[in-house]
Amino acid sequence: MSFALIQKVNDEQKKKQVVDVRSGDTVKVYQKIKEGAKERIQMFEGVVIRTDNKGQHTSRITVRKIASGVGVEKSFLLHSPLVEKVEVVRRSKVRRNFLSFLRQRSGKSARLTAVQFDREAINDVHDAKAEAEAERLKEEAKAAEKAAAEAELEAKQAEVEARHADAK
Q: What does the pLDDT look like over 129-156, one tens digit per residue?
């Protein structure tokens, strides 16, 4: 196996563009969740405490948030088809790549100093495939909702017809 062939396959798996995410950023990650036959998009918002393999197809971020008083960390592969989009909400001044010290801190001691940045320019990443997929999911949800409403109406109609048939 040649390295060029492996590199070509890896580049095909990459998304065209991803958001420039750094440690200390507060991000919203929109992830596709499959539950049985249904698909939905779930948002996870938190602080990026680690970035790995930037520029490669295995680039990953670890996001931490506090949910009901419990620290929750999730790792996301940026080039994964399950990650719809990553949006930078806030950028903070940090001097290291791995912010493991945030795990021991809570409340005011876990705050990071915010930095001014151009939010629109950073989050301006358009992936035509991802946008088409999100639109498709919305259309499927609308179609399923419409089909359920129609089925409910048909059931009511059948019930009314059965009552009229019994009354005669």
A: 767 777 888 888 888 889 999 999 999 9
User: Do residues 114 and 158 both lie within one domain?
Assistant: no
Burial class (CB in 10 A: 0-12, 13-18, 19+), 99: buried
The model scores a pTM over 0.85: no
* 12 & 78 share domain: yes
Q: Which residues of the chain have pLDDT under 70?
A: 1, 13, 17, 127, 130, 168
Q: What is the pLDDT of residue 62?
A: 92
The secondary structure of 80-140 as a DSSP string is: -TTEEEEEEEEEE--S-S--GGGGG--GGGG---EE---HHHHH----HHHHHHHHHHHHH
User: Considering Cα of 111, then 103, then 65, then 116, what sign does the dihedral take?
Assistant: positive
Are 85 and 125 within 8 A, CB to CB?
A: yes
Containing domain of residue 50, as a range?
A: 3-125
- Do 69 and 8 reside in the same domain of the chain? yes
